[in-house]
Amino acid sequence: MTASMKGSVALVAGATRASGRAIAIELGARGATVYVTGRSSRLSGRSELDRPETIEETAEAVEAAGGSGIAVRVDHSVPAEVAALAGRIEAEQGRLDVLVNNVWGGDMFTEWGKPVWEHSVERGLRMLHQGVDTHLITSHYALPLLIRRAGGLVVEMTDGKAVYGDYRESIYYDLVKVSVIRLAQAQSAEVRSHGGTAVAVTPGWLRSERMLDKYGVTEQTWQSADAEHFGITESPHFVGRGVAALAADPSRARFTGQTLAAIDLATEYDLTDLDGSRPDFPRYFTEVMAPGHPPDTTGYR
């Protein structure tokens, strides 16, 4: 049985595409009212990422899944816009139960394999601003509403579980993703006395819209992609289902301060991806990819 979230209000900050869109849809599938934000809108055009997906499409998908989707064009790097968003949610709903900090937009600024002295400072600082400052700004304005009721949940979306671990081949990218994990830990400490929970969540190798375009496949034909190890990839709905299950779990406080992978949530809540499988990217990476073994997903999904 899927636990209902009817009556709950969620904000998915950065819900235009990929995991943000899928999380919003899966929250909607449980009956939640979901505010979906981003910079790409049918009304105002595309963000600097120049992708075709829009927040309105996400809101419509939330509605189709059974929830209530509300699209709001917000640049989460602009405090005044985020403050206005929080004020609107308060005026319209009087509550906020779930905050998903998924703002990113840093892919175009990452320079892989370059040491700090070769990586563009301008691009690197822009990535930090997009991936860290936006989360702090959003929490600053959204958390006062969320902590009014015990049981609020904050989800910080990141990439990878390790704070101390392998370097991510870009000092700025590495800093963003580690910082987001630390933000979840810090917010866990701050909302605990208000009955709140905060976690970091990481997908595995995500088949985002951009990734599908890169390899010339669709969500229906992804298995034909000419890319080594692509067989272990997961749809955005794998992590989306996990976050929605966590949000619907009245005992979720047991996870506060932790970093959870999509496979952790799927195992905990007995979930599968869209194809009915349960891809275990962390174990596959450790046991197959890192040692340089040939692609073979047998026993990993």
Automatic annotation (TrEMBL):
One matching Pfam family: adh_short
InterPro entries the UniProt entry points to: NAD(P)-bd_dom_sf, SDR_fam
Superkingdom of origin organism: Bacteria
Name this polypeptide is given: NAD(P)-dependent dehydrogenase (Short-subunit alcohol dehydrogenase family)
Organism of derivation: Paractinoplanes abujensis
Source species taxonomy: Bacteria, Bacillati, Actinomycetota, Actinomycetes, Micromonosporales
